[in-house]
Amino acid sequence: MSTISVIDPFDVVRDAKMPFLTQALHPEVVQQQFDRLSLWQNTHPIELQAIRVIRYKPGRRCLIEYDVVENQSAITLIGKVRAKGLDRCTYRLLQLLWHNGFDAESGDRISVPEPIGVIPEFQMWLQRKVAGTVATNLLLQPDGIALSQHIAQAAHKLHQANIVPRRSHTMADELRILGDRLLKVVQSYPHLSQRIERLLIACDRLGTTTPELENSGIHRDFYPDQVLVAGDRIYLLDLDLYCLGDPSLDIGNFIAHVTEQSLRTLGNADALIDREEAAIAEFTRLSSTATHVAIQAYKTLTLARHIYISTLFPERQKFTETLLELCEQRSVASHYV
Fold first, then answer.
1. DSSP designation for 168
2. What strands, in cross-sheet order, belong to the sheet with 46-57?
3. DSSP 29-65
4. Helix, strand, coil shares, percent, the chain, to 5
5. For the whole model, what pTM was predicted?
6. What is the pLDDT of residues 235-257, one digit of tens each?
């Protein structure tokens, strides 16, 4: 096992809250776990080739790639680790989706990555890595409208999966989270306090007057980076926030991220409005309950949350006040709808 490459640019083995990461990066220990997994699932042996830590949030989460050979084919497995314990619920959700129309051969070309197994000793579950490109930049391409329509279809398919979530997310939760985030902005940008306080009042009014629709299982963090495009097929990623909620939230969240991307990368919040409109039109065509009013309300609330997100990245801070102004305009417009 001395030839196995281990790349750990974050030095995660020093994380006191995740001491098991030392074992998750130890080639011999990992190979032993893969042997047990293959034996338990009665699958082809998995031969470890390389280990890479690709994402890390100290004391919280870690993402590890394992290059392996299985049945003479080179593949990569992604191990998802949580400090607070093995996320069996998300792994089980992925299994249920995979076996109920979201596999790699589904006729509608909407899938999830294949779930592979769990390694409790590492507080880890595994999925097969899909080679592809996240939708964020592809939306800028000439076929971005068709891609937006396909993504709306994917959201609707998830909402129709009839997999009962273990938790829920209401408009009250959305407003509470938004209030918490914007108060943090006030602490860092006190000169914006009065404007943000007025915006919060407007957002509360918008949220409480938005019609409540029939709930279903939703992604709850649905935006272009959570959609992987592989040829003509798309894969839904990162379903760990899956919950019972308003389906309009997913589309509103998605188009708000497109607006923010347009503003930040193209200098015009409406530069990709045709992509947004295509997603809305397709989603409302498929859904019997979705309304433009609810979708636009969630778009406004998501854009307001982006005010806070912009403060977290130095390269985005120049857009903080622009986003605030955009949200002010939207909240005023919604008041007169």
1. B
2. 5-7, 46-57, 61-70, 73-82, 124-128, 115-119
3. HHHHHHHHHHHHHT---EEEEEEEEEEEETTTEEEEE
4. 50, 20, 30
5. 0.94
6. 999 999 999 999 999 999 999 99
